[in-house]
Design goal:
The protein is of the alpha+beta class. Among the domains are: 55 residues; 85 residues, Phosphorylase Kinase, domain 1, CATH 3.30.200.20; 206 residues, Orthogonal Bundle (Transferase(Phosphotransferase), domain 1), CATH 1.10.510.10; 142 residues, Alpha Horseshoe (Serine Threonine Protein Phosphatase 5, Tetratricopeptide repeat), CATH 1.25.40. The chain has a six-stranded antiparallel β-sheet with strand order 1-2-3-4-6-5, covered by helices on one side. Helix 6 runs antiparallel to helix 12, helix 28 packs parallel to helix 30 and helix 29 runs antiparallel to helix 30. It is globular. The chain starts with a helix and ends with a helix. 44% of the residues are buried. One of its GO terms (molecular function) is kinase activity. Keywords: ATP-binding, Kinase, Membrane, Nucleotide-binding, Transferase, Transmembrane, Transmembrane helix. InterPro entries: Kinase-like_dom_sf, Prot_kinase_dom, Protein_kinase_ATP_BS, Ser/Thr_kinase_AS, TPR-like_helical_dom_sf. This is Serine/threonine-protein kinase.
Amino acid sequence: MLNADAWNRLTDLFHRATELPESERDTFVQSHTGDDPELREELLALIAAATGATRRLSEPMRRAAEAVALAHEQDVAPGTRFGPWAVERLIGSGGMGRVYLAHRADGAYEREVALKRVRTPVIDERRHGRFEYESRLLAQMRHPAIAQIHDAGVDPAGHAWLVMEYVQGQPLSTWCDQAASSLRERVQLLAKVAEGVQHAHQKGVVHRDLKPANVLVGQVDGQPRPTIIDFGIAMAAEGTDDMAGRGTPGYMSPEQALADSAIDARSDVYSLGAMLYELACGTPPVDGTDVAPSACLQALPAAREKEIAALRGTSVRRLRRELRDGVDAIALKALQPERAARYDSVSALLDDLRRWLGHRPPRAAGPARLLAARTFVRRNRLAVAASVLVGAALVGGLAATAWSLREARQEATRARVTSEFLASVLDSVDPAISQDLDKTLMRRVLDDASTRAARELAGYPDILADVELIIAINQISLEDYDAAIAHLRSVRALAAAHPGRLVFQDLRAMQVLGDAYMSSDRLEEADKVLGEGVVQALQGKAAHRWLAWDMQSRRAWVLFMQGAAAQATALAREAFEALSAGMPGDDQQRLDAAKRYAAMLATSGAYAEAVVLLDEVVQRRTRRNGHDHPLTLAARRDRATVRLQMRDFAAAEPELRALVAAYRTLYGENSSYTANARGLLGSALREQGKVEEAGPHYRSAMESNAARYGAESFTAVISRHNHANWLLADGQAQASEQEQRALLEIAERTLGRDNHVTAEILRGLAEAELALGRLGSARAHAEAALQAMRAVYGEDNAAALRDVHATRARVEAALGAAPAA
């Protein structure tokens, strides 16, 4: 036991030791207590206790200090200038500073912004340079899910300030609860947030404080849009040695709580995992938890569990199943305490989120056969149970109509046989091989169904026709057009062999056959079969009249592609009005007809009417099918195309990026849907001056369409022409001119001179020749383009003739300046 002298010595050594850095304390203790082991042991114990207490108290002490500082900090008066920005009013405050609503005060333009006066120590010269560097880094981030940084600086008192996009919205979890968003809708929003974080990481910026309060959700065009704020936290943390700027407890990674710990992209992965956990089961994870969201949900009181499920628009049982079907695995993978055990990047996390949204097992779940089987069935159902309600999704313009065989008023035997046949087909699929084999497996199922149908259903021609239609519809969705056409011809042959018995099946076969021909660029055959179908449906039963108007709408689109714009628009309008009068507002045929009619209106310059129609289609399909259903995606794509035609390229770009991502998830990189969406994205980028970024998108669309449909197909010619326009924008005028000449020969031979595509190629050729200084030839081709456009749209359609007039004006200006030059 220490005597009085020893206690005095211990006290002195303790105070001296605690004033030293931690790395020097052990050496100090050993050198001053080497002659007294008991004193050394007491001193080390005392230092350890004091250090632990300090660490435990540091966080509440820091928060108390922040509260005191916040209480005494002076508000910035309205009208105070920060560079060209003037403060209007305080809109928020927190540990990192105060946020004010501000506006541009120098008259350069009108814009409301959020101005954040960062609560940091006064910035000295060394840290001023660091602040400017990070400000430039933040300003380089341009993504629809990130609040844009507009400006930054240091006020006269030496405090940093940031000017960023003013986002009107609610925190992510609050918005989801108030909207009663489903789990799928919540994960879709988080995936968009992750895309923004991934963009930031590509720019070298780690957020460090991702949490629901820093993701604000608002409505844009009727759809929720998440926006990440407070990317300035890294700058705010510069020069501090406490917890400020490191994150928010409950959402920050374990390494962020440690002093001098390196922070990297995996810290943001952890925070995204914590947000997913809360969105899934209504509560943030406990630090270091290994409890899955579904288990956390199940541990809650029954009333609270039911409330959480209701906020997600579902039952407790179904929510638990959805969580176990992949969300549990994703959240726990992202929340691993050890960084090396987490997803190694946001990109890997995002891939698993997309897999779950696409009804595929996430990679974090491992080789789970039961999960693979369940998710495969959701992706690839061909039939339902005893009611025999056969659903067929027609992608790329064909309505996915719920078609009930029982509603066709056939006998009970037909329903039973069809049900047993389709059920046996599904039962033949081994779920163990379903993972990652989506199209291959579906083709196997359809090929097997085709072979067995001809053999096992030969005695039931009406059932055989139904099954052949189902197979053909699904083959179109897989882009197996030749196989689909063969099945549809078989249906028509069956109808011809049984007069009066298969009238409805014959009409449906003509409808679907027209879509197969059109999708494979066989426009003349599509026009012929759809025209025949319209006449036959109008002459038949009144119950089949909707098919006549649907096929007329489809035929109008074929005529439009062939250059008969005026005739096509008139037929499309008549079909749309007839379907609107006789069908419900959400009817898929009516919505498809509205979409086609809107596209024709936009091409002729009637943008306002087209946008109204497409907005309605997008809203109705989103409500009925979901935000990323193929039918909704098609409507969103058409609306983005109209924005391109209106030259609103900045608005079209984020929508097209989202469409490309969605199509990749649904169909893969090599799908025609993905390629064509990339082609549209290329146009949005090129017209904004992002020429280099646009190039790969144009090339992808051009190569995909040429390989799929043939080099001289309508679709391939359009995508190749767009690529030729890109060559000109990229400074390759000679290559562009050669491409346009080659395309002109194909277009005049296959489409004729009086076609809007031929006219655009003539205009593109004139632009290339203008760039090369071949002014006489440029004038001739610009005049030819104008004459072709007038033949298609008439003399007085200013919007349709806008671009070709602009090209001709540029050529004439160059000719006028040539002698002076």
